[in-house]
Queue: 4 jobs
Job 1
Amino acid sequence: MPRSSRRMALNASAAAAALCLVLAGCAGPGSSSESEGGTASADNPFGVAANTKIDIVVFDGGYGTEYAEFAAGLVEKQLGDGISVQITPSNNLSQSLQPRFVGGTPPDSFTNDGADAIPITSIQDQLEDLGDFWDTKNYDGVKVSDAVFPGVKEVGEYDDGYLNANYVMTLFSLWYSHSLFEENGWEPPTTWSEMADLCTEARAKDKYLFAFGKEAAVYYQWLVLDSAIKQGGVDVINDISNLEPGAWSNPAVKDVLDQMESLIDDDCFVPGGAGTQFTQAQAQWSNDQEALFYYSGSWIESEMKDATADGFEMTAWPAPLLDAADAALPFEAVQAGPAIPWAVPKAAASTAGGKEFLRALFSKEAASKFSELTLAPTVVEGTVPADGFGSTALASTMGVMEDAGDDLFSWVSNSYSGYYGIQDAPYWVSFLAGDITAQDLIDAQEKLSAAAAADTSKPKKEYDYGK
């Protein structure tokens, strides 16, 4: 199970998912690195053999694949000797990789990300322990585990070893236009009561607080729970994730939902979200500036780069508190942590090649290029300049995480709802559209959790996001 020394990490006792019945029975052989024939050296610590064609599969999502192509070039330059790297994009990882795992021909390394990622529990025994990768030096001559933010290595630790190497630091926060706020003399709110006051000012100028789209209404679940965690402590999300009866009725959760219900009733959301495609809703915020805020991960700037108004100055802001006087965490606390996991299959033709690719990827040159291309930070420290490559979003992401200090927590990247297959998104669409009340939503979430708890077909995890 994943183990971690920081709030950002998840401790989960992993168990085999249904997919494991398919994949585990067809597991390929153990690590092939011993028989690859290469000679290890300071420049080639994993011993990638001459003329090896390293096979890399990359999720082609919001971050694209150009960063991986760049890292591939670094590997080819570093090793020479006829070694090449093939980057294969994929929009559907389970569909493209499951047959390869079953057939014993998985890639040398891959990103396990996106809506169709392969459940880690289903392939856990088929992945290389990356302990030697973390202990080796990157292309800067720095031990990889020392080159990344504290706690990053531990997030990928399972009972079978270090199976994942997460690459991107993802911040979940409110996003707003700094230039629009300056133009109107507005200050971003730190409490829900200030948020309500700002809604009144926004409506006076024919604007709204929030926009939402039908596929991403759950982003506002993240906002609600992040705010509730800050108010009531990390046990708020621990109890919800562990399917504890009544967890959704926790006063911190209920009070935040009541605040959001008041905003919905006061016409603070752009109308029609239930019928709006989510990127169109995001464009209502980033391009049309109908809404002041949008809640999302720090991929938002890259995702909306072609639909953002000139001079927008996209800026991150923490979730508001109910009452700072009795909050468990300070206002500056945010949800942020490592995401976009990379893994190396044991049955890969070149596990050495897979690890060598990661060695390049976790070097400063590749990490800095990733941030320049995607305007998102990696886990490699010291790779984003103060100006965020000209991006206010990236600069503010780094600033918000720095302001939070140790008050970081992370749960979305490995959430209970994804593991248990809880289909709660339709209820959030109905809630944000004003069709059901906060109490209706709580009741629906409680029923879904109870059903998941009673379902014996799915092994239970124990979640602990830190104290």
Job 2
Amino acid sequence: MKKLIILSACMISVFACTKEKYAVNHSFWYKTATADDLTAYGITELTLYVDGNEISTNDAYKHYTSDPGCGTGNFVYTDNMFKRENKTHSYKLLDEGDSLIFEGTFQMKQKTGCESTELVFGF
């Protein structure tokens, strides 16, 4: 009986500490002027890295007239976060020759669900 009580207490403590995580997205996008500048420099594709991990590769000519949100087609990073959690991440975008084109940091907040960063090309 004593073993059953101890086992029950252990199981309750294990499951009581399990918190649900929620998918939160962050989008990276740019307008026509940036796409034109990238093309003028001969850049044909970009690869997004977040915290050093490769996320996705897109054609450099893809652009938007306004924030596309976290739908498909643009660069979207997804993180699983606890309720009311905030995280700061670093990002960089490299071209097909591994040259650094964009870099910075962004913050994700669990309560927002989707945020975005507009990228502007210029030297």
Job 3
Amino acid sequence: MKKKITFLLMFVLSLSISSAQNTFRFGTSATPEGKTLLVDSKGLILDGKHIIPVMGEIHYSRVPESEWRREIRKMKAGGINIISTYIFWIHHEPEEGKWNWSGNHNLRRFVRICAEENVMLVLRLGPFCHGEVYQGGIPSWVHEKAGQNPKYKIRARTPGFLEDCTKLYNTIFAQVNGLLWKDGGPVVGVQIENECRGPWDYLESLKNIAVKAGFDVPFYTRTGWPALRGKEIFGQLLPLYGDYADGFWDRKLEDMPGSYADAFIMRDKRMSSAIATETFSKEELSEDSPSLSSKLSYPYFTCELGGGMMPAYHRRININGRELKPLVICKLGSGSNLPGYYMYHGGTNPYNPLHTMGETQASPGTNHNDLPHMTYDFQAPLGEVGQVFETPFHEGRFIHQMLTDWGSELLQMNVDSLSRHYARRGAFEFYNDYVRIKNESGTSHVTFKDYRTGGATIDWTTVEPFCKVDDLIYFIEIKGKKPQISVDGKAYTCKLNKQQKAGKLNVCVLSYEKAKTAYKIDGKLLYAKNGGILYKSDSCIVEEVWTKSPVIAATVTEVKKADAPRVVPMGRQAVAAQPVEEDFAKAAVYTINYDTSGMNNYDNLFLRINYRGDVARVYADGRLVADNFWNGKEMWVRMADLVGKKVELKILPLRKDAPVYFQKEQKAMIEATKGDYMLGLDSVEVIERHTLEFNDAF
């Protein structure tokens, strides 16, 4: 009897192990050409090989259509190989039955460009998206229906709402029909809903609607937060997770409140307790409940790693750029096999004459914070107008290139050792003790430990792996450490930027500054010469460089001084309320003029405005085109929106006693100002974007 029980137990265990190794069965996984994309409990399998891809978010409807291809190429240069994007319902159907799929809303063209640029795409379908959009992207007419009919409930499994969701999904599918992975297109996945607590049958209904509409894709996802109400059916939706360096949504006016610092430690918990804390309870953002423990068989993917962050009116977060690398280091060290960034590229909200298109406390839904009407820069690696935020762009790029060259090996390696600051996965060691604001002198890096390659063993390194070119391994220095590589028991001290032998291996350790110029393109390592970024264009490699214009200067004239600043009121959600249009009658007003005679293309010209105050707005012929909540950083404006129009800059003074959070550097600026408020315009510069053909290799 004992032998039978033992045999039965072994049989059950073997079934479990076999099941865990099998791939998930979602939609069609093969293209007409025979390429395959599958998902198993470790990660993604492309053409039979495990990979660790990198996903980055950009919102096509927040970026000019003419810029899509360029910006996608820049995202790829940063190491992004899967693009994710929200499809904001309110952007496409602001009035019931009146759809807009043209211009910046031309989803089909965006998807086609992704296909042409050979990048995969995940569509986040909604109906609710959030994205700091007015009402989370749900149109006002939907809210009106809910107000008129108590049986019509938004984000619920009620007939009327699901009928409207069916129309939404059907209409979206019509835009991407023929462009799914199974058609040879780029669409590999769709996300159902967003930050939804369920119940599960609501999410299941939406997935069924999506599948019936035609979304037959390799995988379907949901955000892994908050905890679901009711037990899910395993294997239907992949839960994807996230973490943020800080949060505009927090109610507190202090540095790094709550658990934001936990994003900077290694841990075996996937759920972040710092996302959307204004909406969800601690319990909903806690560890997965035992009834859902089967989700640990899901691969550990993320879709919202936030190295950047928007400033809300009441909370003016200033991202320094060093936050992104520690976030991804901690997630990789903790076992994650897909870094997904929100946002990787900023943008601008579409103009709406009836109401703001940004989140506001005064709206019927998603009304916890006041966000700018127009700007959605997010302090992302690529900003609102495509400007490069150098530190997160390059430090992220270094890791992404490492994942391209070593990701297949890393994915096979489990977490062998895990503590707050250190983790080991096989031959990869991850370390981080950097914490935003709390320990900014800390460091973050990944190094080799007992790594077999080229017939040798790399015992340890004090430098970070970057890429492989033929039999040459490139590393990047870790600042403050002597660059050394130990091979087969012998330590070699490396000269920076020089190829050398380390035992049997050919190695080269790049300085941090040299690495910022280095791009692996078509199997070669190329070096930018002008401080720009390199990417592949139609028929060549180009270097994109941003410089102050040597020929076009902005002339600024003050036409009205500011009146006494307003007393900042509290909004409906008990945080400071942003100014309304009438308040700008008290603003300082400046006209901006410039001479662009002889030019016929202004797409590569931008205004960079450095000011001090509360809120700044730029108007062109009286229409709002840009706004900014001051957090110590510059404001960017596309000159293509201004040329031939009367341009006015309005700045509201900032009261020293405003109930608004600022970081210590900005607080010092405010306190150093004489009087009761701060107001100043330091510079308005014309910045040019140049695209230079690149011909030289290292």
Job 4
Amino acid sequence: MDLMLSSPPEHFFCVSTDKAANPVNIMGASKKLMEELIMAYSGKLNIKTARFANVAFSNGSLPLGFIERMRKQQPLACPRGIRRYFVSPQESGELCLIASVLGESGDIFFPKLDEDRDMIPFDQIAIDFLKYAGMEADPCETEEEARHKASQLNGSSGKYPIYFFNSDTSGEKSFEEFYTLDENPDTETFINLGVIKNDRGRTIEEVEQILNNLYKLFETKEVTKKAIVTILKESLPAFDHLETDKGLDSKM
């Protein structure tokens, strides 16, 4: 950021995430810290960012995972009780472009979506995806049952095994939000986009102090997740880490 001060760009844009609003995991907290860092410079540079929804069929997304698993005839796995907003790859690109060109320095853009209409349960996505593929979901109670049924798949199979489970991974929100009660979004300027007008709350020196605390931690021989969470909690009051001691690596 300091290097740009000597030769300021016309526009500077960073991608953030909905997880930065009331973060419950380290990824969301790190994005919130990124927002605070770049916004500390928004009085000196023309800076904008956007909080994204899930980009459908992007790398790492659940829908793309369904496609990859079906190609390998592997069972699908899907959490219950988790709802998410989705945007298309084209919409995500348009969001970046509009924010970068039309936004004012310090603006945080987000897609203006309706919770009842647009927030979709993952299990419904899985069922609709299989229906689109010409198959019916075959719900399984265990990972073992799903694997066994997948091993029996053939060209005439009309059902596809899917393991539905209750989500218990660390830092998993049951729903998404794009702004907090402390933020005052402008939902009138754009038809399909909202804008949070940043108040440039932290100074550059304050953000640098947080980063220095993290740098010092990373220089120690043994860095623990708990130690990272502690520093982030001290620095970001809205960070409420949800720890269950379980992660996606232990899931099918």
